[in-house]
Amino acid sequence: MRGGEVTLEAILELIPDARLLTLVHVPGSVTPRIEAHGPRPSFVQRLPLARTRYRQYLPLFPAAIEQFDLDDVELVISTSHCAAKAVVPTGRARHLCYCFTPMRYAWDQFDAYFGPARVGALRSRLYGLALRRLARWDAGTADRVDRYVAISHYVAGRIDRYYNRRADVLEPPVDTRFYHPDGSAPGDYFIIVSALVPYKRVDLAIEACRQADVPLRVVGSGPEAARLRGLAGPAVEFVEHCSQTELRELYRGARACLLTGEEDFGIAPVEALACGRPVIALASGGACETVEHEATGLLVPEPTAGAFASAIRSLDDRAFDPARLRSSASRFSRPVFQQRMREAIERLAC
Fold it and tell me: pTM for the whole thing?
């Protein structure tokens, strides 16, 4: 269960009778608590291969999100990293958007997803035309939201830059009661927990660990899986699916958790900290708000394999206190999130 799903569960606990709308829903892909709300998908659900290749229908997302009937709704809470913030509520309804990020591929990370090196020159040009139009739509619908709440100060800055709107900041919840140390000593491997998509830069973690001559475990799945497996040597183990309990054990057994891409927040590093393990992260984006350099981990100044390999090697000369690491994660606990989200909803009604 990753960050968006954890956040949605925490919000549904606050509003147990909420109606749940989504662009696409794959039965069995979410937790029983979310499934019990009977997620209602858009028309995209009925298109060919939508459950596995929904990204190919990106140009249809605006029409899909705008077709939801919200005439009888007085409160809308959207969790958005793409199109959800653009739902069309009635004039009397209030809309709070919990924003993971303005859509990356339409604004500042186009090349990472649809650049010529990724999809070829012709397809990149076609995607460019579609996404420039999508960016205009994204900005043009920003005022359908009454209040933005961003997952980090980094994302709040992007909301200001692309939507010209101010956002409060409320970091997403981490289950710090579940993720905790067990007193065991770390093993010899490093871990990266991530969707296998381009901007996460998992390839950088693979190369850094090769240069540092240390084992790496890659936990996650996604469209980059085949390419990354082709880059990996025998010291890299891929874990495509695992339970939360298995993931907790992987954190506890790791020397450190790696974060090689620029994240909007980064749930995995906080989970690792909660388990008493340090983090080696790129000194950019949300990691600067969750990792304290040389106290709870190391912030790497540049996104190169050499810089990360150097940080990995330097870990032998450092000692991190598991109790301090766990304490630093406690500020992102689920109860803290729910209390502050409740307050944000109450302010919206004023």
Answer: 0.89
